[in-house]
Amino acid sequence: VAEVTAALAHAGLNILELESEVGGTQDHPIYIMLLAGYAAGGSAALEPALAPLRLGGIEVRLTAIDALIG
Length: 70
What we know:
Elements: H1 2-10, E1 13-24, E2 29-39, H2 42-55
Antiparallel strand pairs: 1-2
Helix pairs in contact: 1-2
């Protein structure tokens, strides 16, 4: 959690919500984290921060959504 949230926050993501869950199997558990937030630079500003996480073996998916803010 700390590694992912720190990388995204450093890249400009303001985390508004975080949920986590453990899935997979007993032999192969996986940790699932769902974040919702706002980045002034959009998803393009966050992608470079995700590259080192992916190289470290963390599967990361970033999905931008259109939301009414304000």
